[in-house]
Amino acid sequence: MKTTILATAALLVAGVAAVQAGTVPPAPNGIDLPENYRDWQVIASSHRVDNNTLRVILGNDIAVQAARSGNTRPWPDGAILGKLVWKDATLEAWEKAVVPGEFVHAEFMFKDSGKWADTGGWGFARWTGMDQQAYGEDASFVQECFGCHTPVKSNDYVFTLPAQLP
Amino acid sequence: MKTTILATAALLVAGVAAVQAGTVPPAPNGIDLPENYRDWQVIASSHRVDNNTLRVILGNDIAVQAARSGNTRPWPDGAILGKLVWKDATLEAWEKAVVPGEFVHAEFMFKDSGKWADTGGWGFARWTGMDQQAYGEDASFVQECFGCHTPVKSNDYVFTLPAQLP
User: Rounded to two decimals, what is the model's pTM?
Assistant: First the structure.
């Protein structure tokens, strides 16, 4: 069931203090949350209608440069892709607009073809919720990530296709 | 009707040369296209299911700082909001994902409560298509923009609500 975003509620949410840098635990495979991911540039967006979530896909400088120059097969070492995920909500002022509701998680793919050779050259990590809890019981959680991404091996294990931009 | 994004096609699209800075004509009201808007940070996203378009809402530094601190009623002078709009497409590798297809337009709201007092303190402008044609026959085009935004006067004429971020 979708929630409806009221302007007042969203403003209160926006005013919540950001999680302090350095207080977020690393993922069970040792990957740290990139500190400045909120400031990365946009590569694409998506709306998953199977689980009713909106997503924005961001990249660090290396990833954005690769995306804009079409050099993503493979993505270069050092590229990091970040996906911000929210539950669907309905904009009160425009009911045919699905907009970001509750924040679900931020998840990342770190390209290092040597370090992460066992999982297609990508290190996976996810932090859930507004309190950014590290996802996974132990380092084996990446098998879940990698298993889901294996069908897109021909696209360097990445679902995202860079959006067209002038 | 939705199109399906094939990985190869999208890579070709990503490789298209960006429109050269300085070659895009100003809007009929004299507003210039912000040169670096592709590099702005994310404020929100949306999926309009009435006209089947995906949107990412970006902001310049003043707008992003206002969004993240909850100071958007009113937005401060100097804030610029940019909206990138694409037609819906279906991701071939995940058919329940709606993703950006053909680029439709980039549209902007420039906050200057003095200069644009007649239209709620906002200057409006839009550039359509990959060749970034200035929208509007003459300066009166802003009445169309302002008319549509008037119902959200109580939210400083802005539909977008900043997405929740940790």
Answer: 0.91
